[in-house]
Amino acid sequence: MKLSTYEPDALPPGARRLSYGLFCWLNRHTTVLRAFGALLRHWPSVGGRLGLAARASAVRDVLTRTRSFSNTAHAANMVSGDYLIGMDPGPTYSADRDLVHARLASLDVPADSDAEAQRRIKALSGRGAGAFDLIEDYLMWVVFHAMRPLFGAATGAVVAGSTTASAQGDVDEGLQRQYMLEIRYVAGQLLAGSLATLDLRRRAEACGDALQARIDRVSGPIGAAWGVKSASEDIERNAVGLAWISHPVTVQSGALIVQELLGRAKVYEELRSKAGKLGEPGVWTDPEFRKIVRNHVLELMRFRPIFPLLARDVPRDTEMETGARYNAGCPGGGKVSLLSIAAMFDPSAVPQSGRFCPDRDWGKNDALRYLMFGYGYRQCPARDHAVEILTSALIGLLTLPRLQLARGEGKAIAYDGPLMLRMRMRTT
Ligand code: HEM
């Protein structure tokens, strides 16, 4: 079997634009990806020849064999330098992993995400215009406030990129917005992958450099806030990584689940009616309702995962169990791709996999329910925090009058490659 080991820069510009366009189109049309995944589940040997795993058992198997299938596949798309997600296990990986766990332990979700969702919803209702941008006026802020403890007392300095007195405490919202734009394109490159056009890659690199420079100026306050005495390069690597990995992916996931929910009018109406019956403050305090919304968040993410595909490097010759009669050979130096979206719809592991079913009993396959966060040892360490934040965000939206995409004045959703930049909404 021949696995692709192409170098992205070797692609002629036309072929790159075409393949990137196709990649973005597939990202937006997950039903097509799912149909492709169903074919590969049926004929796993075909997938094996292309270096693709689609069955739940195969995807799980690759994700748990962390030494044979390496996360370094991400490294080429990390434009602001190395970080945990693209590293192989070792002392640096272990230290960075401990640090991320310690920083995540300082988060206070759902309290912070509830509070910001309530504040933003109140402001949106007060505006009375009935139109707003889901990403720029809402999700960005809910996630930003939930993530503040990651940098603790140094948040102002990080956002301002400065240690002056004016960067202490709460800094201007304009600067906060600028910071969020910068990290968005850095994270965007991880999503866009090596097919991204060179222009996009250059923009991501410029934002990556700016993020590094910003963190470099404030690594003192960050080290103090974290209570660590490590070398400043360790603080910088972790601070840069945490900045871009935490916020944009969660915001994008929020936009994706709202997009999916609005396409399911009946499900949306049922949730709204439950929220309407509970009213304020019940929607925020009723544990049963929160559980229902949380289950919806997970099921909506299954239909619209932000990472429908994951890649792995193959450091040395090995084999992959695709589910076919014979294992697929994976030559060292190549890559494999995992269609996690296909695995999450594998009927042999997920009962009634094609149905939208938030309260499905996953039985012994419960861990698969979280496959949009990866699987096993390398699974997203912020999984539960992110789900809580998105639950808060969705509860807030359910307290608004009925929402729809604001079509009519141009496109409601503005895309930038696989990223959604804006999502204009209207209440009816
Ligand atoms: C809805 C939001 C999020 C989604 C869908 C998500 C998804 C993922 C996925 C799929 C992976 C595994 C990638 C792989 O195996 O190749 C991952 C890893 C990771 N995520 Fe998240 N993530 C989210 C939010 C966050 C947040 C808020 C943080 C903040 C700290 C974070 C930090 C990380 C880190 C550090 C890793 C690397 C873990 C490792 O390699 O050991 N993620 N995430």
TrEMBL record:
Listed Gene3D superfamilies: Cytochrome P450 (1.10.630.10)
Keyword Oxidoreductase: yes
Requisite cofactors: heme
PROSITE patterns hit by this protein: CYTOCHROME_P450 (PS00086)
GO biological process: sterol metabolic process
InterPro entries on file: Cyt_P450_CS (IPR017972), Cyt_P450_sf (IPR036396)
GO molecular-function term, one example from the UniProt record: monooxygenase activity
Alphabetized UniProt keyword annotations: Heme, Iron, Metal-binding, Monooxygenase, Oxidoreductase
Family: Belongs to the cytochrome P450 family.
Listed PANTHER family: CYTOCHROME P450 26, LANOSTEROL 14-ALPHA DEMETHYLASE
Record-given protein name: Cytochrome P450
